[in-house]
Structures are given as structure tokens and as C-alpha cells.
Amino acid sequence: MEKELLRLAHIEKSFAGRKILEDLNLTVHENEFVTLLGPSGCGKTTLLRLIGGFELPDAGKIWFDGQDITRLAPEKRQVNTVFQKYSLFAHMDVAENIAFGLKLKGKSRSYIQDKIQYALKLVNLDGYEHARVTELSGGQQQRIAIARAVVNEPKVLLLDEPLSALDLKLRQSMQRELVKLKRELGITFIFVTHDQQEALSMSDTVVVMNQGWIQQIGTPESVYNEPENAFVADFIGDSNIVDGIMVHDELVHLLGKDIPCINKGFGENVPVDVQIRPEDIQIVSPDEGDFRGVIQSVVFKGTVYDITIAAGGFDWLVQTITGHEAGKEVGVRLPPYNIQIMAKPASEDEEAAGDA
Amino acid sequence: MHKDWSIRRLFGVPFVLWGVLFVVLPLFFVLHAGLTDEVGTFTLAVLGEAVQWEYLKALGLSVLLALVSTLACLVLGYPLCLILREYRQKNGMIIFLLFLLPLWMNSLLTTMAWQTILERNGVLNLFLGALGLPTLQLVNTPAAIVIGMVYNFLPYMVLPLFVSVSKVDKSVIEAARDLGASHWQTLRYVMLPLTRAGIISGCTMVFIPALTTFVISALLGGNKVLLIGNIIEQEFTAAYDWQLGSALSMVLMIFIILNMLLEFFTSEDNERKEARV
């Protein structure tokens, strides 16, 4: 693991009596691509603004490179932000926007010129120096906002839902470009989004948040494949989540049947949440499955079919590459290694945090 | 389509009539009075009389006081707008209304109130005296006129300025801070240039009534300080010399038009220059 760069400890923040962040702890390393993922109102943007210096925490400390920066003014932090609304200076042209931070730092004219050229090349907008920012498209404005931030050579680049205003195609290409950009710059990115696809495809580390609590921190694979609670399972990707009881190790009781699984260590006769991904459920002949059921609907989604099967008193969402006929009687099979057992939230607080 | 268009044009007729009757025609009367002699033949003599030293001195003083008042309104109004912008959701509207209140009161009344405040034995001097401070001789001085102008015309500065200042998105200010600008640098390089249009229209809205006022200067300046507005008023109401009064109005009007043209042609230029850090 790379060196620790940023550490937030026991952060509390409320607005007008409403708690936004509660006892939040987070460590970010050098050269890491961290995504703060969660539904709107989960506190992810507030967290980013605390790091940028635009909000002060009610309690807790923020360390940057070993220094306490909790109360440091934003202009004194080695951090730059790419804002959701781009927030370019409308009275300046592209080059003047990019040069803004460098001129304030008193860099030489030739240094600034070189940096402008370098930054425009970096975001694929060479030749746009003298364009008015109001004449640019949304995607171009976003690139200039990125260029304006990175010329200052921050150690951390904060990105606040920078792609949310772009259309799908452009968003996808910007995602790839951002990952490439991060590799070229070799700095830490902290990226805020509510789009789980974006988070999974870009990050080294995903921080899943809900109602001011961090739900899970992990690699994209681990938060997808091993969600720690029902919120994470439900928020990231599609899921079937069923109440179950862990009978003993490697056996879970759900919908009236004992189903083998591979999870251990939950104890005996403990209520749990059982999650299984739609693409992991197998459709078999009626007698071969764990449950017998009837196909309710089939929806073609492009790459897969979304199939709903009523079986064992539950509507299962199943995704398959091949189509099936609605009304057909089938068997639903849950392969043991694809079943994910999650502990039920213990306290009421956690419960609140778990239900979105 | 064609018919529709001609009907729409009909809606403009009352406004054109208004303009002709109440703007163009009176303007013509003023021009006519200023450019003819008693029997109605064309002459530049009256206009020549109007540009004599005494009157130009009054115009100069008017311009100076109007400039000082405009500047004072800007210096008072801009921070106010910045503060209002921050508190928009909370108590901002109450403060805003407090500053607009002078607009709703009769300006004659407010100016007379200032008279009693600034008088030799007025409220201000009573207060200063009570504190053991030296009293001020303010009434009948240019300073008193400036105070009266600032009080009466501040709302005209604040209104357009507030619109302009509140249009700047909070995240643009944060972006400036993020890129290393202090509060002052953010004001100098981002806020001021972005609110340029509001500053110009606010200044114009204060400068022109300040330049032409005669009530404030009459009440707070006594007859000791003569502004161009007072001279024009005297020509019409005391000397009954409508020709000279009209000619003086023309001089004032030409001056204002020149001013606005200058402003118009330099603003595009400056906008580009100011943008450079």
C-alpha cells in the first residue's frame, strides 16, 4: 500500500440541527483513486467540501501529509477541486481560466504559457486558448475545469460529480479519460458520485455511504461481490435480498427451505440478510431447482434479459443471456458459492443507516 | 403570419405615442427655447451665455459632488450586497428592505430630516456635544449635500448591484478560493469583473439624479452652494428666463450624453483588460 496522505478522524457535521456526518473515519493513500458513492443526501459532497476547506467540521480532525489542516483556509490547501457546475470564470478566456491559480502564485510568464499548453494537451483541447468559456460545450467546460485544477499540481484532486451533467456516451469516454489522466499525473483522486457504475469502473477504492455513515470501504470487486450489509448490496447493482436464518455454518434457512452456502462464523439460528445477484441464479428444469416457480415476465435489456420468477413466495430477479418464455414452469437454483450472507444491523442507529 | 405580425405591432402604438408626446416633443421645446431669441429667430447667443464661467463652475461642482456621492454609494453598497448575498435565505430580505426604505418616503421629507440632523444645533451636534466632542459645521456645505444624496440615492445603487452580485454562483467564488485566491483577490479578480454590469448601471442610476438634483442642494446647501440644478431652477422660477434655463439644460444633457457614450465605448475594452490577472 502507498503512503497515507489524508486522514479524517471522528468527523461530525450537522446543518441546521440535521446530522450530515457522524463519527466518520477515512484514510486515503497517495496515488489512490477513491470514490465516495451514495444516494443524494448521504453526506458525500459535504465530506468532499470538508477536505476542500469549504466547510468546517463540528468535531473531529483532518490530517494532510501529517499536518492538521482542519481549520486551514481553502486557498492554503494542496488540494484542488473540480466543481459539479464547472464554475469557470465567465469573464476570462480558456487560457486565463487555466492560468488563474498560477498567476496568483506568481509563476513566470513562460512557465504559465508552458503549463497552459501542457494542460490543454492533457484534456485534448489544444488550440482552445482564446475561446470564451461560454462558447464551449458542457464536456469541454468540464475539461477546462479539470485543466484549471491540475496545473496547480495538487496532491489531491477533488471531483464533485463532475460527469453528472454529461450525456451517457460523453460520460463514458470522460470516465476512461479521467482514469488515464490520473495515471499520467500520479496524484490522488477523490471522486464523488451517486452512479454505482461510474464508481465500480473507475476506482481503486469505493467508499459506500448512506445517511452520514460509511457503509463499506473496499475495492470495486469486494463491494460488489461481498457487500457487508443489505444497503450496499441493494445500492450497488441489482440484488435479490431475502430474510433468512443462519441454521449453522454453511447452511441457511430461507423461504421455508434449508439451502447450503459457504459462509461461516455467523453462529447458530441467527437472523441474517441473504443476497444473491440476478446473474448468479440458474434457471433449471422444475424438479432440479431449490425452488419451483413460474416465469412472470421477460424484459429484453440489450445485453441481458431481466426475468422475474415467482418461486417460494418471493419474486426473484434473474438475468440471463438467453431468452425464456413467460408463464413457463421452471426451477430456481441458488449455487452455494454465489450466496452472500450479511449480518442484520445490530443497533437502531445502524438500522437507520442501513435502510435508504 | 403576416396579419399576426401587424396586430402585434399595434400594441406598440401607445408606447410610441407616449414617447413622441412626452419625450420627443418636450425635448423639441427645450431645444427650440434654447436656440432662439425672444422673437423666435435661430441664434446661438443664449447657448453662448449658458457656457459662461459662473455656470461652468456650478456644473463642475455638480459633477464633483455627484462623483463623490456615486463613489460613496458604491463603497457602501457593494459590501452590503455581498453580505445580503450570504444571508439571502435568512434575514437578508429584512436588511434589504431597510435599505430600500428611503425609496418609499418622500425625498423632500427625508432631506428636511437631514437638515434637522446636521443643523448647527441639530441632533448630530447635540450628540457630539454630549460626548464632549467638537461640533461640526455641516449644513450649508458640500458635505451636507453629499450626505443627503447618498441617503436618497443609495437604493438606486443597491438594486442593480444586488441583482448582479447574487447572480454570481457560490461555487465560482469557491473555485477562486480553491485555486489560491484570498478573500481580497477573489473580490478583485472574480467578483468585481463579474459584477461589472451591475456596478456600471448602479453608478449611472446614482450619478445622473445626483448631477441634476436641486431639492437636496437647496435644502442642505442653503443658498451657499449653487449646483447646476439650482441655477436651472432659478432661471425658470425666479428669473423667468426660459431661454437661458433651456440652454443650461441642453448643456447638462449634452454632458450626460457624452458621459454615457464614453462609458459605453470603454466598457467593452475594460472588460477584457480587467479579466487579466
Explain the overall architecture:
The complex is a heterodimer of chains A (356) and B (277). By secondary structure, chain A is of the alpha+beta class. Chain A folds into three domains: 4-225, P-loop containing nucleotide triphosphate hydrolases (Rossmann fold), CATH 3.40.50; 238-276 and 339-356, no CATH class; 282-333, OB fold (Dihydrolipoamide Acetyltransferase, E2P), CATH 2.40.50. Helices cover 26% and strands 35% of the residues of chain A. Chain A has nine helices and 20 strands. Chain A has a six-stranded mixed beta sheet, with helices on both faces. A five-stranded antiparallel beta sheet of chain A has the order 13-12-11-14-20. In chain A, strand 17 and strand 18 (314-320) form a beta hairpin. The longest helix of chain A is centred in the middle third of the chain and has 18 residues, at 168-185. Chain B is an all-alpha fold and 277 residues long. Chain B has one domain (52-275): MetI-like fold, CATH 1.10.3720.10. Chain B has helices at 2-10, 13-34, 45-50, 53-86, 92-104, 107-118, 123-130, 142-167, 170-178, 183-194, 196-212, 215-221, 228-237, 242-275. In chain B, helix 4 (53-86) packs across helix 8, helix 8 (142-167) packs antiparallel against helix 11 and helix 9 packs across helix 10. Classes of the chains: A alpha+beta (356), B mainly alpha (277). The interface between A and B is medium-sized, with 29 and 23 residues.
